[in-house]
Amino acid sequence: MSKGIPVFLILVLALCVTACNTKKQQSTEPEPTTAEVKKPQGYEIPRTQVVPIKNSRLGGQYELYIKLPESYSEHKDSIHPVIYFTDAIWHMDILSASAEYLMEDAVLVGISWQKDMPEDLLEEAGEHVSRYRDYSIKESSNPEHQAKYKFGQAHSHLNFIRNDVIPYVEKNYRTDASTRSYFGYSMGGNFGAFILMAKPDTFKNYILGSPTVDGDIALLSELGTTSLTKYKGFHANVFVSYGALEDELGPHVEEFVTMVKSKKDETLSLEHVVLEGSHQTVFPLAGVESVRWLSKITKE
């Protein structure tokens, strides 16, 4: 018998050395982080689609954020109320949450800002720069600002909504054309006031949150007088709100409400509320309260 080390002992020692080396190598390598194991994914609002849409008359690329109710695919013959709103990326969250509890069967249609604006304007004023042009009623008195931002194109933007957005939605989704609703806040609220006064048949229900109507009331009144004759009344339900702390804007909104009432139109129903807060802090309340108001009148 050989006096050397037994074979089985050599094998055991070899295994031990291998294990030690492996452990040593592993200890020098950093442990993978949670982010490396699984990268976080972006959150998407359930049942929401992003649809590109182009202004067929003037060009310009936009997007529609369309959220369908949970019951939409279950009931193939059902027709749903629809809420259109501007400043889509700012307003989708609050309107989605409000509708989920207060108007479960509603289709939401958010209209984005123009996506293909000149790069210099996007860098200077932000991705929302087209709202200055699209939601404003009158041109700026500042020639430099007017040349840059093209204020006063609300009529063109309304044509885009009437000729492109609404036809697309009503062709591809089961929405009730007779009860269309509009939600707008701040400049979007002013744009909604313009739609109501200029072409009230665009929507049945108008939600105007803290509308920046200062300087536009005389023109809005003139448009409203013409529409009363042309459309034989506004035939609309209107919800107007602003914040109790909006010291500068509040009196102008009150003036707008007084002007609307002065038309003495029996086909128009007006709800006017003052909410607690400033122009920034009152927005969530305006979103919830207006959808609650809308849920009631659509059930009547």
What is the strand and helix layout of this fold?
Layout: H1 7-27, H2 34-37, E1 48-54, E2 61-67, E3 82-85, H3 88-102, E4 107-111, H4 119-125, H5 130-134, H6 143-149, H7 154-172, E5 181-185, H8 187-198, E6 205-209, H9 217-231, E7 236-243, H10 250-262, E8 268-275, H11 283-299
Parallel strand pairs: 3-4, 3-5, 5-6, 6-7, 7-8
Antiparallel strand pairs: 1-2, 2-4
Helix pairs in contact: 3-11, 8-9
What structural keywords apply?
Alpha/beta hydrolase, Siderophore_Hydrolase_D, 300 residues, Esterase-like, single chain, AB_hydrolase_fold, hydrolase activity, acting on ester bonds, Rossmann fold, eight-stranded mixed sheet, globular
Describe the structure.
The chain has 300 residues and is α/β, with parallel strands linked by helices. It has a single domain (48-299), classed as Alpha/Beta hydrolase fold, catalytic domain (Rossmann fold, 3-Layer(aba) Sandwich). Helix content is 45%, strand content 16%. The chain has helices at residues 7-27, 34-37, 88-102, 119-125, 130-134, 143-149, 154-172, 187-198, 217-231, 250-262, 283-299, and strands at residues 48-54, 61-67, 82-85, 107-111, 181-185, 205-209, 236-243, 268-275. Strands 1-2-4-3-5-6-7-8 form an 8-stranded mixed β-sheet, with helices on both faces. Helix 3 packs across helix 11 and helix 8 (187-198) packs parallel to helix 9. The model is unreliable at 1-5 and 7-27 (pLDDT under 50).
